[in-house]
Amino acid sequence: MDTSVWSLMLRRDPPAEVPQVRALVRALETGERVVTTGLVLQELLQGFSGPRARDQIVARFAAFPLLAPDREDHIAAATLRNLCRKRGVQIGTIDALLAQLCVRHELTLLSADEDFSHMKKHCALRLWEQW
Known about the structure:
Low-confidence stretches: 1-6
C-alpha cells in the first residue's frame, strides 16, 4: 500500500476471505491509521436491525476518526459526479462524496464496491488494490 492512511468504506458485510476484509484486518492489527465518514456509519446502521447490532456498530466505529465533508467537498463531489456521468459512468451521490473526501485528504479508499474502480479513471482517487 502506498499510504498508511485509509478510508474505510466496507458498507456491506462481505465474507472474511474477501481481500478487502483481510487488508482491513491487517491494517488494524499493524496499527495503520484507518478513518471513515459518518456517511458510512449511517449506511451501516440503516442496514441492521435491533438495538444490539446498532450498539455493536456504534461501539466499534467509535475507534475510527470521522471525516466530515465541508461545502467545498459537496461542490467538488457534484462536479465529479457530473464529469463521470458525461463520460458514461453512473455513480451515486454518496459515492461521489466519499471519493471526493479521499481525494482531498489523499487517502486510499478500501472498498468492496466495484463502482469506485470505474470512478477512479476520471479523478485522482486512490483505490486499494490487491497486489
